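Q: I have two molecules that I believe assemble together. Could you output structure tokens for the complex as a whole instead of separate predictions?
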Amino acid sequence: MKLKVYADRMSQPSRAVIIFCKVNGIDYEEIKVHISKGQHLTPEFAEINPMKQLPAIADGRFKLFESHAILIYLACAFPGVADQWYPADVFKRSKIHSVLDWHHSNLPAEAEIILSSSLSKLESFWLKGNGRFLLGGNQPSIADLSLVCELTQLEVLDEKDRTRLLGPHKKVQQWIENTRNATNPHFDEVHRVIMLAKERQQHQRLKAAKNEGGSNMKKPLVSRM
Amino acid sequence: MKLKVYADRMSQPSRAVIIFCKVNGIDYEEIKVHISKGQHLTPEFAEINPMKQLPAIADGRFKLFESHAILIYLACAFPGVADQWYPADVFKRSKIHSVLDWHHSNLPAEAEIILSSSLSKLESFWLKGNGRFLLGGNQPSIADLSLVCELTQLEVLDEKDRTRLLGPHKKVQQWIENTRNATNPHFDEVHRVIMLAKERQQHQRLKAAKNEGGSNMKKPLVSRM
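A: Yes, here they are, computed for all two components at once.
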């Protein structure tokens, strides 16, 4: 029976799981659960995940939730997942657990103060050295995927806010780009909903600015004529 | 070289790591870092954990922080740790990751509203069935240890508050007791600092109540004389 992935691509951990499946050629069925429509709160979905959160998976009779636990399970239970994603080496693997746990407590993309200090720590600690990925790696692991998916949630911010937050962190920007390149075309495809949301927001902001700006600008224009 | 555990027994994840070492006969040296004295903020400790948080370990040249990552590392890297603590079976292990990740986002002992709803979920989901431990187990895993250490932080609360919070959750109470019994005498020994803190607080509350009560009660007493 095919792996079932219950996901809403608007949520960052859902995207991480979907990208992981795609990149590693895991045969899965995506079952869309729309948070905005409250579909995660139905009794049917509570059968899959009693905590009513996304993502969740069902692999035959085995059900699992929490995105990090899911990523680790997929890396271990499916043949053909490259060792880079969740190395068998106990030291390397432990460092990945450490990043993922740190991520849990420090990287909610919504809280700006925590985020700002976390971006500094990413830049100065997790991305120190010359590696292209976290922990000095030359290939991405599940930690890169999970954290970058969290950070791309920033895409929906106003360009000005995004630049203010990410601007000072060149290594973080480069690492996001490296992770994106290493997992494309899947990365972009799965993030398409976020980019669409961003475009909608920009459109609304432009419209608002135009209405506002229009009324402000009319006077000088008129006065010059 | 002996494993070094940097810990403050006043902090719940520190206690979980120390108890784990003791229960499993892991030879270690405890290096006390007093948070109340700001010892975790020194440049010396930043060499061990640049995030300046406790607990942290150093096993030879290998350094690690985040308590869940440490528990998993210890379970994997030290011979003689029973399989129950972090089962080799991928399905069992995945469920443990799921609990630990859920713990991260849902069980900060300080936030009462989250805590209350989390206790309900512990009772109705993670402790469902007849098992004496989480996930229906008959022996504790690192998930039991980590969560119970978090919850014993409630010990320092006023008895009334503690009863109000824990009272409705009989299964949770029994599970805390089961985990305590399964890891004693180490559990009690490591929690001694918490019990002492509790006694100090009770003493202060009694003293305050006595003074307050005293001044309130003096008048009627005087009037009766």
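A: One point stands out. Residues 214-225 of chain B have pLDDT under 50 and may be disordered.
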